[in-house]
Write a structure and sequence with these properties.
alpha+beta; two-stranded antiparallel ribbon; 6 helices; 14% strand
């Protein structure tokens, strides 16, 4: 039998019979293409590719291994799902902290 728990509060979703909500998040770099000019068309694309390949070869293993695209998957109980829908980035939670002014 597959066992599910809420990834936020830890509630056992298998035993209680409550519905389970799945949240999938994908993070990746944005790309906004610039306007193409005549100078862009005059450039040699093979030279640009060669420069990119040379740059990648000079990077350390850690920089190359860093994924540009990352996906996340969470199982949530109904209460945590409702909290997530209301504030997906947790901004209100962060504002609730009241630090003293030492």
């Amino acid at each position: 039998m597959v066992h599910f728990t809420c990834d936020l509060c830890g509630k056992d979703l298998t035993a209680c019979g409550d519905p389970r909500y799945v949240v999938k998040i994908e993070a990746f770099p944005g790309f906004d293409p610039n306007e193409i000019t005549e100078d862009d068309l005059d450039e040699d694309p093979m030279e640009a590719v060669s420069q990119i390949l040379q740059r990648d070869e000079s990077l350390g293993n850690e920089e190359v291994a860093t994924p540009l695209r990352k996906g996340f998957r969470f199982d949530l109980c109904p209460a945590c799902h409702l909290k997530f829908i209301k504030d997906p980035l947790g901004k209100e939670f962060l504002r609730s902290f009241d630090f003293s002014k030492n």
